[in-house]
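This section describes the prediction task in plain terms. A model, or a person checking by hand, is given the sequence of a single protein chain and must write out its three-dimensional structure as a string of tokens. No templates, partner chains or ligands are provided. The sample shown here is typical of the held-out split.
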Amino acid sequence: MDSHTGGALAWLAQGAASNLLDRLVDRALDGPPPMPSWPRLGGSPPGTVEISVRHHLTIRTRTPVILTLQEDGSRTGTVFSVVLGHTTRVNLPGGDYFGAAMIVDPLGRTRSGQTLQGIGWSRLKVTSRRTSPLVIPAHHPTAPVLLQLGLRKADGTPLFRLPPSRL
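The expected answer:
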């Protein structure tokens, strides 16, 4: 993982460490998520990104996905919730972006935290007046990856529980 990817995912982790994660999961489960929007469309015509997340999960329930988009080199971005298996469209100014996804088990919420089913990221180049697909492949999370990303609460406890290991 390069330093830019690690920094972008650390930003995602900081937002997830707050109660933002619970609010986003609830929003995804409450019905059709609102259409995400980019906070600052530049002077140039925007392009459209169609974002989907791929994961090995068999979808039996509405499975929330927390997505982030960041402009290349930015320390901040936009976070929104979607449902696994759905494609989300976002209008963005032309440029280079980084997208990350965390798949959260809707039935795995306990007092000790959410169960993280998958995590993934991908880079994207957006061209004005064009539609670009972005597929984010999500993989089974591991403890070393979560530690490397800093997915811990302020008191040092893990932010997520991990699902049972697969062989």
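For orientation: The helical segments are 3-17, 20-29, 143-149.
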